[in-house]
Amino acid sequence: MSVLTFPATTTTRRVADDERARILADPGFGTHFTDFMAHARWTAEDGWGPGELIPYGPLQLSPAAAVLHYGQEVFEGMKAFRHADGSVWTFRPEQNARRMQRSAHRMALPELPEDVFLASVQELVAADEPWVPAADGEQSLYLRPFMFASEAGLGVRSGAVVDYYVIASPSGAYFPRGVQPLVVWVSEEHSRAGAGGTGAAKTGGNYASSLLAKQEAAARGADEVMFLDSQTRSRIDELSGMNVFAITRDGRILTPELSGSILEGVTRDSILQLARDRGLEASEQILLIDDVLEQIRSGEITELFAAGTAAVINPIGELVTTQGRWTIGDGGSGEATLALREELTGIQYGRLEDRYGWMQRLV
């Protein structure tokens, strides 16, 4: 049976207004959570059961739950934005719903119907509306839909019981320094994902595999890590959780092609559309790290940036490799990069016309 709605909860348990106001004054990223969460359960016997909104809190999970041993889980990342008139909107949610279906398929999980995904997000945000930050600045309510195999029992097979949740977290800037040029370490030893693997799925193992390289990056004074392909160590894939773009002096915007080991980012797709409409020639192609470093050195590549839901668009000012350091342009935030960021966030926060029909009202 498909889940059609997530009925509003009748509980009166909420964080006190003054405590919520204190949190919203400086929410950080991913450290505070709202009053409620959406939930639905799937079983192999009955399919999807009814949805519900319940108080946010700890989950009761068997130590033998399949996800703890075999990593069968997927998730999404999206945001709810307050507009100046007080309404609350989200950005291209149908794309997140479809990507979650693709991720679930790759991880042998049940595919959540798109209308169910959208209903869960809408009902949760409606219940947690006081947690959506004010329209000024760039704060938002970060939304995390996720599902995992919760069946208790050991043995490598697809779980026969799967739980789906959506939680929400008021959030500010993803990077502690805000929108400042990143220093990025190019890992030549570790890979995020391999050919035929799960790189195109949004699943936790891909992020876990990035953590050691991120530690190495931090030890070298870098903010992030860039991964190369696992077979030749020559092609750029992506950062630990963001797609990569380069802008050239002759008006091109380049990004690695979707090779099966790169996440198909919603922000990535949106940037390509915005860039084309701004007159940039957009190209999805193989980007060889040696070519990119040479094009940075020669000045052919004038800007480099990373993009994803959490950080939106963030300039990259310097690449660090075992051979040395490469400064992109003057090491600052490029003009085209910031213009794309301003346009994208302008649409998301309702400051600019949504001529693409990307925004969906939630409240």
Can you characterise this structure?
The protein is of the alpha+beta class. 25% of the residues lie in helices and 28% in strands. The protein contains nine helices and 18 strands. It has helices at 17-25, 66-70, 93-106, 114-127, 204-208, 211-219, 266-277, 289-298, 335-348, and strands spanning 36-43, 47-48, 52-55, 73-75, 78-82, 88-91, 140-149, 161-171, 182-187, 224-228, 236-239, 243-248, 252-256, 281-285, 301-308, 312-321, 324-327, 359-361. Strands 1, 2, 3, 4, 5, 6, 7, 8 and 18 form a nine-stranded antiparallel β-sheet that branches. A hairpin with a 3-residue loop joins strand 15 and strand 16 (312-321).
Reconstruct the topology from this structure.
Elements: H1 17-25, E1 36-43, E2 47-48, E3 52-55, H2 66-70, E4 73-75, E5 78-82, E6 88-91, H3 93-106, H4 114-127, E7 140-149, E8 161-171, E9 182-187, H5 204-208, H6 211-219, E10 224-228, E11 236-239, E12 243-248, E13 252-256, H7 266-277, E14 281-285, H8 289-298, E15 301-308, E16 312-321, E17 324-327, H9 335-348, E18 359-361
Parallel strand pairs: 9-10, 9-16, 13-14
Antiparallel strand pairs: 1-2, 1-3, 1-8, 4-7, 5-6, 5-7, 6-18, 7-8, 10-11, 12-13, 12-15, 15-16, 16-17
Helix pairs in contact: 3-4
